[in-house]
Structure formats: C-alpha cells, structure tokens
C-alpha cells in the first residue's frame, strides 16, 4: 500500500474479539492520487470473499467566489471562480431555478492535477424579473455528491459597482465575494 496508508489499523472502541479488531484501514494523509479501486479480501478456513469498490479522494477547493461587476447602467457581469478542485468540476450560474444559457464556463487543470473552474454570464436589466433578483453559482464535483452554492443579489438599474478614485478602485456594497478553506475528503462510490 502507498505511503500514508498502513496495512492494518485496530478499530477503536471496546472490540476485544481479535477477529473484529483489524477490520479497517486508516489513511493518514489522503491525497487525490490515492483515488482508485480497492479490494478487500476476507478468508476463513472454509471460504474466501472479495469485494472491490472505487474510492474517491476529492478536493472541494481552497477558494470559491461569486461576484457581480456592473460597468454599464443596464448590464451586469456575473463571475464565479473556484480553485484547487478534484475531480473535474462542473459549474453553472442559475436564475429562478434554471441555468443561464449565456454562461461561459472554462475548466483548467494545473500541474498538480487540480482544477480551476470559472463561469461568467452577462445579464441585461430587461431580463431581470423583479427590481432585485438572486443569482446562484452552483459547483459540483461528480461523481461525488458534493454540491456547493454561492449567491448574489442583483438590483437592476443601479449605477456601476466600482469607481476609480485617485487611481484606486472603490468597491460598492452591491459587489459580493465569498470564499472558504477546505481539506481533502474521502468517499466510496458505487
């Protein structure tokens, strides 16, 4: 077995039965390169049984941002970015429960095998159903069941969200950022 994954690990608790004490494997430092098929074999004097399952070590990312940029009075650009993800992510920008058709998505793998995904959509004020509309950026990591969301509330007709004052951009309240810190996670698929 690879470094960081000992061959046997005694199960914690009040297991005094030696036939039950070593029924687990502890992975000390999981990383995405440990993803793959694993087989467990159990033998008795009369029978042997084997089962193979796929183990996925995934990275939900180190940052996940959803912002809106308004450079013109009647147009807003919604931008969503997530970094250091594994496996290959999917991202969409959603309005009223439906993905925006004009969303442009880009997925790039870095030299470590982790992904960066970005999505952008330009929305005209005429396409906003109410004076204010909530947009959702949805991030998925198939085949895991991980789904993360970021939201932003857009108010149509407002002036641009950033102005240049003395050479420095001044961020307005309408531009919203979100981010978080994550570690690797392990799950069995199938």
UniProtKB/TrEMBL annotation:
Domain of life where this protein originates: Eukaryota
PANTHER family reported for this sequence: BEAT PROTEIN (PTHR21261), GH04238P-RELATED (PTHR21261:SF2)
Protein name: (diamondback moth) hypothetical protein
Organism (species): Plutella xylostella
Organism lineage: Eukaryota, Metazoa, Ecdysozoa, Arthropoda, Hexapoda
């Amino acid at each position: 077995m690879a470094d960081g994954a000992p061959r046997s690990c005694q199960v914690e608790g009040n297991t005094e039965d030696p036939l039950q004490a070593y029924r687990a494997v502890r992975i000390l430092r999981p990383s995405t390169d440990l993803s793959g098929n694993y087989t467990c074999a159990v033998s008795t004097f009369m029978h042997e049984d084997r089962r193979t399952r796929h183990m996925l070590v995934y990275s939900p990312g180190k940052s996940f941002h959803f912002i809106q940029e308004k450079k013109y009075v009647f147009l807003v650009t919604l931008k969503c970015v997530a970094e250091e993800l594994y496996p290959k992510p999917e991202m969409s920008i959603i309005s009223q429960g439906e993905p925006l058709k004009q969303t442009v998505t880009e997925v790039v793998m870095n030299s470590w095998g982790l992904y960066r995904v970005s999505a952008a959509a330009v929305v005209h004020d005429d396409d906003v159903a109410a004076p204010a509309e909530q947009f959702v950026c949805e991030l998925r990591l198939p085949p895991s069941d991980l789904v993360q969301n970021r939201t932003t509330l857009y108010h149509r007709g407002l002036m641009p969200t950033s102005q240049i004052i003395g050479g420095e951009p001044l961020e307005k309240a309408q531009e919203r950022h979100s981010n978080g810190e994550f570690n690797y996670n392990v799950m069995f698929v199938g």
